[in-house]
Structure formats: structure tokens, C-alpha cells
């Protein structure tokens, strides 16, 4: 450019660029950016960019508010402090619970951590970006491996097609003699190519950028693909990384993606991807915690002198683990238990039962009121349950009207730790979903990492270590049950494992060809199955009448008649429901403490010879056992058919179906009057679905020394918590209105039965 002439270019920017290049060639310094008109704005943008960095990326130095000396001609630079480990820990804890904090939460956090509001805001933005980028890298690595595998298979097929070999003589095959197997391989290869193209299109939509099926890593396949990755339902690719691949207390094993601006077309898909990555991170952390809790000894688990029990050390727990689901809500109490035992089942069968909500609910029918699988994120890999991840909802019950249902939404994750060794963990997901605040208001219970470790034994059995860790709102529980609930004996590991052992023993006996059946009536094998199915339905209906879960349509009755405050009365209308008589059904239940050992109380209630001492249905006469089906080695686990003999000619004999079950965690006696012709049909192998039942019975929990204190604060010497429940048809018309007399009749029946039991056992009435 000439010294005093016009610039060579009309554009000021191009002229400036040319001037800079000439200055560089001459060795002169470049113009100072601060001298340009837009320099101040550029510096401000640079400072905002620096402020948006994570605290771990800031440089140590002076505060940005300190000024340079007045005579300094160079522009002052802003220096930053690193976030302290405590600040990072607090930020990580909130991020796990809520990755998108609102303005109020950010303000509270910035005030508590002595940070600026925008520092907190930028930290959360960067954390979400970091998580998503790590997720992308992890998915791309797995997809690239799968793509390489398909390419290798394709090359092997092409090679086989170039040099076909006859399967009979081993020589070269003539044209047209390609084997049927190779033809199938060609068809499978064409199908995989088509599937790959569709998967690439889907992954391109998900990631917001086009992906080539020839050069890019293989994306996740469609839901109906034989490649078991299922992007639409899983959200992450399998196989899952091993727990040992991550360091202890790692904040995110997989990480995630950049979140686009809200309101954009990709917002919903990315939010779902972020949620799935958070669920996977939660599952891995919960699995790590479960395995450690199952294997650790002192000081986490302190042995007790009472019967080999263990006491959980909460202080050591808080030192050893980072909480997966945030701090304990106000008003909640904790219970943590562990139990180990041998079960008559192999590890694979048990894992399949736990991962199937219907089979899980059937196995623990006395503990689980209802269970559903709400979403399957991964069905596992290689045709097994290894890596299976699913969202579930369950209602856990204690057979007493004084203890509310525990409603939990949780994540269930299954992992194979070694050959013949599996682990299944549950952990609540409250706080991850978008409606976390609404869930927190209604949440009464949540599960911390809980589950079991299963190890196959040479005998065909398996060793099970069960861990239960929960937090629940104690104020909703009656004082009579608060001590025993807090001890973990009611819904703790002891109850789960004892129920599993009893149910597996029952299944083993029923599957054997020589299942014992005694009594005066001959029952065929099909009749035995039909009778057991009927007894199972009877017991399930009994539990539903006591606890009233959402799976059964019961309406609670309040303020009807002279009813005690500890008696819960419910009603429902039965219309054309198979297995139930039509009309208005009334259910009443209550729980009392009885100063009698649980085993003695159970033996008394199940004995048909002593039934007339408390059961008004026996007409005061003796009972005779017509049939008996054993359901376990313990003589208290059985199904019986009883006949009440008529005392005089004016009374007709009747049949009573009774099921009794017992284990160290509790016992039940459930019975119902049944129609004689219907039972003859059932015992001959007929369908039991339409046999009408209205069950009644008892649930017994052992309440030993120092566990269930009385309402006055005194310690009981030993006794039982007895629940009494009746279901009665008060009117055969479903539209009929319930009368006060009917309610008082059921209430008097409960009171009279309890008084007779106490009198027969020489208790203080």
C-alpha cells in the first residue's frame, strides 16, 4: 500500500488485515486491539467466556476485582480462583438430584457456597455439556466396534462366495451349488444392510447430524432389531462397562451431551438422552454401593450379641459412601438390614424372577401389593439379563391396617459379576424426572441401593445375600408398629429372604412327582394344582382387603357406626367379577398386641380341633380335615379343606378352604367358606377361576423383647402383633346402600373374635 494513497481495498477490514500482514513481514508489532472501536466489546465477550468455565479449569491468582497500577499501559487481565473441593462436592450433589436447577435453587446454592449466581449457572451448563460429550464418545466407540464386526462378517461371506466348497466332497463347488446355509447368510447380510441404513437415519435424527452407513460408527438399531441394543427403549448401548472400570466416587462413568436451547426441535430427544444417561449413572453407582454393602463387615456392620444379628453403622456409611439420591427428607427415618441364606433355586432362575414384575410380585405376594414395569431401558445383552435396566413401580405392604402402603418408583439393574454370580439392585428415581418437586411432596418412602447378590452352589442351590436400605415417613405409621418397622424386621432383608426361601421350597415340592397329599379325600395331580391356585387367589384377596392397594378398588368408610379408631372398614361393589359373589362386600381389619409367642399363636389358630374356641362359623362343633396338601417341610405350610360337622339336623355341613404359611419373619392363617359342589369340581381338576371366595384370617408378626414397646413406653417381655380381618357380603345387590347395622355387625365380629382368642390363650382381655 502506498504511503499517502487510497487503500487498496474498499473494505476497512480487508485493509486492516493487509496492514497487519505487512507489519508482520517488517517485524513490527501488531496494532493493539484496545485501540479498535470494537475492542472493548471483544474483551467483555472474552471475560464472559472465561466466567463460564468450570471451577476446576480456573487459574489460581488475583481476584478479578483488583486493579493494575495507574501507569500500566497494558489492559489488566482477570484472574480466577479454583473452586474448593467442598464447593465441587456440593455442586455435584445437587446436579445428581436436579441437573436443571431453577433461579431460586441457584441463588441459594451461590449464597451457601460464596459464589456468584452466574458462576453456578455456568458450572451447571458445563457439567451437562461434559456429560453429553462423554456419552457421545462412549456410544460411538461401541457402535464403531459393532460396525467393524458387521464388516468382518460381510468380508467372510464375500470370500466364501468367491471360493465355494462342496459340503460333501470338500472340492470346489460348481456354479449353482451354493449351500442353503450360504443362501441364508446372503439374505441375512442384505437384511442387516437395510437395517443399518434405517438405524443410521434414526441416529442422525437423534444426534442432529447426518451419519453415513459406510464410514460412520454403527448407530443403535431399531427396536425390532435382532441386535439387542434398542435405542428407542434403552437409551444407551450395551455391553455395560464393568464396575471395576471406574474409580471410586467417580462423578460420571459415562457422561453426556450438549443440551440445545430450550424450545428447539431437538430439546425433547436430548432431554430424554440426558435422563437415560443419568439413570445409567445412578444404576452403576447403586450397584457399586450394593456390592460393597453386601461384602463389607465391621465397622459398617456391627455384630450383635442377640442371635447373630447385625447393627448398621450409619456414621460409617456416611463416611464410606456418597449418597446416590440426595439427603434424607425431613421427618424420614432409616432402616438398613442384611441377611444371608441358602435358597433352593439357581441364580439364573432367580434373576429371571426378579426382572419380571409379575413373577416377582407372585413370589413375594405377602410383601408386594402390586408391581409393574413402567419402562425397559435395556433387556440385557447376549440373550441374558446381564446389563438389563428397567424402571419399575411397586407398592410394598405390611399386613396391618395401621401401616400405610409404601409406594416406590425405582430403577432395577441386573449385572453378572462373575460366572454363576449375579447382582440385582433397586434404587429410587425420585428427583430425576421433571416432576420431581411434585413427587417429593407426595413421597412417603424411597429405596436407597437395595437388592441381592446371588452365587450358585455345587448342590444346585444358591447363596443369597440380601440388603435392604430404605427411608420412610414414620409419622404415618401407628405407634404400635413404629419400633418393629424401624428395626427392619417387617420389610427388611430378613423378611425378603425368609419369604424367598419358603416360596422356593414350596415350588420345589409342588414340582416333584411325589408331592404329599393326605386326608380322607383323594385328589388328582391336576386337582392339586387347581386347589393350590384357588388358595393362592384366596390369600391374595385377603391381603388386598387388609392393605387396600391401588390394584384393588376399595373405598374407605369413615364415621360409620360405633367403630374403634384402630379398625379400618372398607367397602366395594362386586359386579360380574369372576371368583367373587355379586353385591356389596364389606372388609374390616384391625391389629392388636397379644402377650403370646408368635409360634404358639399360629399353632392355636391353624388347629382345626381348637377352631370352635374362636370361630363362630364352626357352629360350636368339631372340624374335620378332608384334604391336606403340604407346601413345605414345615408342617405349618399347607392348604387344607375342612368340614364343619352339623351339631343338629337343622344345620347343614359346610366346607372351609384354609391356607397356612409360616417362616421366621411371620405367619398367616387365611380361610374362606366354599361351595361343596364347586370344591368337588376343583379337586377333580376343574377350573377354579369362578369359585366364589370371601376370605378372612389372621396375620402374625413376632414382637420380641425390646422391639415393640407398648404405648405407655414400657418394654414388653415378648408377644405378637396380630391382625384380624374379615370380608363379608352384606347385600347381594351391588347398588344397595350400606347400613350402619352392617358395619357394627362386622365390628362386633372382630371384637368378639379377639376376645375369644385371648380368653382361650389365658391372656388378659
From TrEMBL:
Species the sequence originates in: Rhynchospora pubera
Name the record gives this protein: Homeobox-leucine zipper protein ANTHOCYANINLESS 2
Composition-biased stretches (Basic residues): 73-83
Family: Belongs to the HD-ZIP homeobox family. Class IV subfamily.
InterPro entries recorded: HD, HD-Zip_IV, HD-Zip_IV_C, Homeobox_CS, Homeodomain-like_sf, START-like_dom_sf, START_lipid-bd_dom
PANTHER family, alphabetized: HOMEOBOX-LEUCINE ZIPPER PROTEIN ANTHOCYANINLESS 2-RELATED, HOMEOBOX-LEUCINE ZIPPER PROTEIN MERISTEM L1
Span of domain Homeobox: 74-134
Keyword Transcription regulation tagged: yes
Keywords: Coiled coil, DNA-binding, Homeobox, Nucleus, Transcription, Transcription regulation
Compositionally biased residues, Basic and acidic residues: 43-60
One Gene Ontology MF term: DNA binding
Domain START: 272-509
Example of a GO biological process term: cell differentiation
Primary site of residence: nucleus
Coiled coil feature spans: 128-163
Recorded superkingdom: Eukaryota
Top-level taxonomy: Eukaryota, Viridiplantae, Streptophyta, Embryophyta, Tracheophyta
Compartments in which it is found: Nucleus
One family name in Pfam for this protein: START
GO (cellular component) term, any one: nucleus
DNA-binding region: 76-135
Annotated segments matching region Disordered: 29-83
SMART domains per the UniProt record, alphabetical: HOX, START
SUPFAM superfamilies: Bet v1-like, Homeodomain-like
Amino acid at each position: 500500500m502506498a504511503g499517502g494513497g487510497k487503500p487498496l481495498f474498499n473494505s476497512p477490514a480487508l485493509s486492516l488485515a493487509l496492514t497487519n500482514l505487512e507489519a508482520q513481514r517488517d517485524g513490527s508489532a501488531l496494532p493493539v486491539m484496545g485501540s479498535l472501536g470494537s475492542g472493548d466489546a471483544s474483551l467483555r465477550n472474552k471475560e464472559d467466556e472465561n466466567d463460564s468455565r468450570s471451577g476446576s479449569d480456573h487459574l489460581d491468582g488475583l481476584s478479578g476485582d483488583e486493579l493494575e497500577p495507574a501507569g500500566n499501559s497494558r489492559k489488566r487481565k482477570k484472574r480466577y480462583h479454583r473452586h474448593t473441593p467442598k464447593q465441587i462436592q456440593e455442586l455435584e450433589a445437587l446436579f445428581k438430584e436436579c441437573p436443571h436447577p431453577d433461579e431460586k435453587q441457584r441463588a441459594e446454592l451461590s449464597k451457601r457456597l460464596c459464589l456468584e449466581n452466574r458462576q453456578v449457572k455456568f458450572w451447571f451448563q458445563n457439567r451437562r455439556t461434559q456429560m453429553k460429550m462423554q456419552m457421545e464418545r462412549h456410544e460411538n466407540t461401541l457402535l464403531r466396534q459393532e460396525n467393524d464386526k458387521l464388516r468382518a462378517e460381510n468380508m467372510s461371506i464375500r470370500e466364501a462366495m468367491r471360493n465355494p466348497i462342496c459340503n460333501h466332497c470338500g472340492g470346489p463347488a460348481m456354479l449353482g451349488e451354493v449351500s442353503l446355509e450360504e443362501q441364508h447368510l446372503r439374505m441375512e447380510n442384505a437384511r442387516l444392510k437395510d437395517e443399518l441404513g434405517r438405524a443410521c437415519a434414526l441416529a442422525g435424527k437423534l444426534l442432529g447430524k447426518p451419519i453415513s452407513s459406510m464410514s460412520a460408527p454403527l448407530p443403535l438399531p431399531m427396536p425390532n432389531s435382532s441386535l439387542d441394543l434398542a435405542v428407542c427403549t434403552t437409551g444407551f448401548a450395551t455391553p455395560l462397562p464393568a464396575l471395576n472400570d471406574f474409580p471410586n466416587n467417580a462423578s460420571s462413568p459415562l457422561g453426556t451431551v450438549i443440551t440445545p436451547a430450550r424450545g428447539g426441535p431437538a430439546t425433547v430427544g436430548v432431554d430424554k438422552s440426558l435422563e437415560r444417561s443419568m439413570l445409567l449413572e445412578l444404576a452403576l453407582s447403586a450397584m457399586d454401593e450394593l456390592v460393597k454393602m453386601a461384602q463389607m463387615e465391621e465397622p459398617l456392620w456391627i455384630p450383635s450379641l442377640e442371635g447373630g444379628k447385625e447393627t448398621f453403622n450409619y456414621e460409617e456409611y456416611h463416611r464410606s459412601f456418597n449418597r446416590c439420591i440426595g439427603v434424607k427428607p425431613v421427618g424420614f427415618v432409616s432402616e438398613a438390614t442384611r441377611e444371608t441364606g441358602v435358597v433352593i433355586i439357581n441364580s439364573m432362575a432367580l434373576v429371571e424372577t426378579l426382572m419380571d414384575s409379575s413373577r416377582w410380585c407372585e413370589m413375594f405376594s405377602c410383601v408386594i401389593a402390586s408391581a409393574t414395569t413402567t419402562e425397559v431401558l435395556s433387556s440385557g445383552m447376549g440373550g441374558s439379563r446381564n446389563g438389563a435396566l428397567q424402571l419399575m413401580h411397586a407398592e410394598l405392604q405390611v399386613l396391618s391396617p395401621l401401616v400405610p402402603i409404601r409406594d416406590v418408583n425405582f430403577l432395577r439393574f441386573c449385572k453378572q459379576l462373575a460366572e454363576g454370580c449375579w447382582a440385582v439392585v433397586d434404587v429410587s428415581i425420585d428427583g430425576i424426572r421433571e416432576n420431581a418437586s411434585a413427587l417429593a411432596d407426595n413421597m412417603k418412602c424411597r429405596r436407597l441401593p437395595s437388592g441381592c447378590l446371588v452365587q450358585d452352589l455345587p448342590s444346585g442351590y444358591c447363596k443369597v445375600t440380601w440388603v435392604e436400605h430404605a427411608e420412610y415417613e414414620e409419622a404415618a405409621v401407628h405407634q404400635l408398629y413404629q419400633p418393629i418397622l424401624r428395626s427392619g424386621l417387617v420389610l427388611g432383608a430378613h423378611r425378603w429372604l425368609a419369604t424367598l426361601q419358603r416360596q422356593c421350597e414350596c415350588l420345589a415340592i409342588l414340582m416333584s412327582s411325589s408331592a404329599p397329599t393326605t386326608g380322607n379325600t383323594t385328589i388328582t395331580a391336576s386337582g392339586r394344582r387347581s386347589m393350590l391356585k384357588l388358595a393362592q387367589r384366596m390369600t391374595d384377596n385377603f391381603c388386598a382387603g387388609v392393605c387396600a392397594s391401588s390394584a384393588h378398588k376399595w373405598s374407605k368408610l369413615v364415621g360409620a357406626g360405633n367403630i374403634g379408631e384402630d379398625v379400618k372398614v372398607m367397602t366395594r361393589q362386586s359386579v360380574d367379577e369372576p371368583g367373587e359373589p355379586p353385591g356389596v362386600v364389606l372388609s374390616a381389619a384391625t391389629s392388636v398386641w397379644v402377650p403370646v409367642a408368635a409360634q404358639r399363636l399360629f399353632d392355636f389358630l391353624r388347629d382345626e380341633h381348637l377352631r370352635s374356641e374362636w370361630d363362630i362359623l364352626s357352629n360350636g362343633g368339631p372340624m374335620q380335615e378332608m384334604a391336606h396338601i403340604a407346601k413345605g417341610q414345615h408342617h405349618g405350610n399347607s392348604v387344607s379343606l375342612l368340614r364343619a360337622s352339623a351339631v343338629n339336623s337343622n344345620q347343614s355341613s359346610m366346607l372351609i378352604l384354609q391356607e397356612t404359611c409360616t417362616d421366621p419373619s411371620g405367619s398367616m392363617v387365611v380361610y374362606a367358606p366354599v361351595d361343596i359342589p364347586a370344591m368337588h369340581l376343583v379337586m377333580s381338576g376343574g377350573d377354579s377361576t369362578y369359585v366364589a371366595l370371601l376370605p378372612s384370617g389372621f396375620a402374625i408378626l413376632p414382637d420380641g423383647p425390646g422391639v415393640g414397646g407398648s404405648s405407655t413406653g414400657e418394654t414388653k417381655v415378648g408377644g405378637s402383633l396380630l391382625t384380624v380381618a374379615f370380608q363379608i357380603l352384606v347385600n347381594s345387590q351391588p347398588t344397595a346402600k350400606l347400613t350402619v347395622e352392617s358395619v357394627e355387625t362386622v365390628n362386633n365380629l372382630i371384637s368378639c373374635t379377639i376376645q375369644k382368642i385371648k380368653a382361650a390363650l389365658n391372656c388378659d382381655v
